Amino acid sequence: MEDDRAELAEAARKLFSGPIAFLKSAPSLQFIPDPTAPEIAFAGRSNVGKSSLLNALTNRKSLARTSNTPGRTQELNFFDVGEPLQMRLVDMPGYGFAEAPRDLVKRWRFLVNDFLRGRAALKRALVLIDSRHGIKPVDREVMDMLDGAAVGYHLVLTKSDKVKRTELETVFAATRDEAAKRPAAHPQLFATSSETGAGIAELRTAILEAANQ
Ligand SMILES: Nc1nc2c(ncn2[C@@H]2O[C@H](COP(=O)(O)OP(=O)(O)OP(=O)(O)O)[C@@H](O)[C@H]2O)c(=O)[nH]1
Ligand SMILES: [Mg+2]
What we know:
Structural class: alpha/beta
Number of helices: 6
Distance between the termini: 17 Å
Order of helices and strands: HEEHEEHEHEHEH
GO cellular component, one term: cytosol
CATH topology: Rossmann fold
CATH superfamily: P-loop containing nucleotide triphosphate hydrolases
Largest sheet: 7 strands, mixed
Oligomer: single chain
Number of strands: 7
Cofactor: Mg(2+)
Radius of gyration: 16 Å
InterPro entries: G_ENGB_dom, GTP-bd, GTP-bd_ribosome_bio_YsxC, P-loop_NTPase
Family: Belongs to the TRAFAC class TrmE-Era-EngA-EngB-Septin-like GTPase superfamily. EngB GTPase family.
Bound molecules: guanosine-5'-triphosphate, magnesium ion
CATH architecture: 3-Layer(aba) Sandwich
Keywords: Cell cycle, Cell division, GTP-binding, Magnesium, Metal-binding, Nucleotide-binding, Septation
């Protein structure tokens, strides 16, 4: 059992340090690629660190575009991992971004929800939560939707470098307790920092495990 975990962790490390390439950007579902590989999607409020986490996981500085201004990612962005192709990572627009024009926010919301609900190739969603803020009402809406559609997801705390250890422990426990009550949430919770690399190796292993399911 222990050996299996170590083997999987090593396979994940190798996979994520090997070939990874941007495939395409889809502004609507019409343009998404054929579902030829297992997919893992990154969801969460604007500015929570979705694109940064994708870069940290893949050890690349600017594979996915990041920015201090919420609303950076405006389309579904697909990244091919492995040669031959083993899985696809999907960076998505953020939800809960009040400053953008309302129609735009609505369009992103529909795009993200329709994708998450209707994609057979989607093996797991990662729902990112800012360690400084914990789960917000808009995160619960997404979790409700995923629970309703029986799409498995992991909650992932981001920006762990921005809070004190004791604060992180508190938000970690509260988030884990809430995940435990959710039918489609995976019980394992991750506290990550794209800045320091904390939790990144563990998350890589979980992603590979989900893709192989
Ligand atoms: N300190 C710290 N800053 C981070 C971390 N992750 C992301 N950031 C910063 O947070 C800001 C937003 O990061 P993004 O990765 O662009 O966030 P996003 O969720 O993709 O945002 P949208 O595409 O707008 O939805 C950037 O300024 C990042 O540098 C982290 O782990 N630690
Ligand atoms: Mg982004």
